[in-house]
Amino acid sequence: MNDLILHHYPESPFSEKIRLILGHKKLPWKSVRIPAILPKPDVVALTGGYRKTPFLQVGADIYCDSALICDVLEHLRSEPTLYPAHLKGVCRIFAQWADQQLFWAAMAYSLQPKGAQHMFGANPELGKAFGDDRKAMRVNMTQLRAADATSAYRSYLRRIANMADEHDFLFGAEPCVADFSAYHSLWYTRVQVPPMADILNATPSVIEWMDRIAAIGHGPMTKLDPAAAIAIAQATEPQPAGSNLLIDSAFQDDHGIPLGSRVTVAAESFGPEPTEGELIAATRTHYSLRREDPRAGLVHVHFPRIGYVLRKAEAA
Ligand SMILES: N[C@@H](CCC(=O)N[C@@H](CS)C(=O)NCC(=O)O)C(=O)O
Fold this sequence. Notes:
Blueprint: E1 5-8, H1 13-24, E2 29-33, H2 41-47, E3 55-58, E4 61-64, H3 66-76, H4 88-110, H5 113-120, H6 124-137, H7 146-166, H8 177-192, H9 204-214, E5 221-223, H10 226-235, E6 262-267, E7 275-282, E8 286-293, E9 297-304, E10 308-312
Parallel strand pairs: 1-2, 2-5, 4-9
Antiparallel strand pairs: 1-3, 3-4, 6-7, 6-10, 7-8, 8-9
Helix pairs in contact: 1-3, 1-8, 2-10, 4-7, 4-8, 7-9
Bound molecules: glutathione (GSH).
């Protein structure tokens, strides 16, 4: 099999979720460091437009969004599982809540002036560029005010503590996808913005649970430069739909858009840059687009169905 290449940057919470899952499943991986803000020419060469972090490259197949990457890693190595049979629905729904509600509360809390000063105090120009970049990404969403975010974050931490009081991990003796999704936002507060981390002190069982997750580590990783990753895509044929690392291939037509159509796929909110290509799969779980890139050659770009908008491309 082609190497697993994670495109990410150290401070990214959703990347920390995937780094830990790679460690949990003991999967070796290659690490490509990408910029945190636009422009991202090497990213877009592979994704065709999607600019969020992280994404996973396997040869000339590009898997966007950490939820889809979880499915890919589970398909590749089913043990230890992210989705225990008796928790299948609830752990995915909990993860979705954590990746949305908990994440945005944690971000708005952590990046109040004191937190932003810690992150960018030494480089105010970078702080301004980061703020402008994220502002442009914020479509179809309301921004939480710091005080409201603080209230929500405190409540969420108490609820997570109720779970961590009961078992070593949120749903039992072993971690599942819910743990990794709940962890990454709290990790951001604790590790990236320590001046804001005192909010965690009211829930010591959450801190102990975080220590257990952190102990999992990131597994065996080697660095790769972005140009080498693009050359790998260039030199590799993408996998035909149905034999890639996704679980299903049956066509599910909810949009009246036949396979073979020219389409765009874009995130519903936050980071609306679309990827355009030929629709080669639209299954229960994901969309796959085929696109030709001047630098990366023929690539297949995959997105989860949930959270993404499929449209027919405008005629040129
Ligand atoms: N639903 C996406 C969310 C990813 C996301 O919002 N990532 C943040 C970084 S942690 C991001 O893309 N920020 C802008 C950027 O890195 O360009 C996922 O699960 O992967």
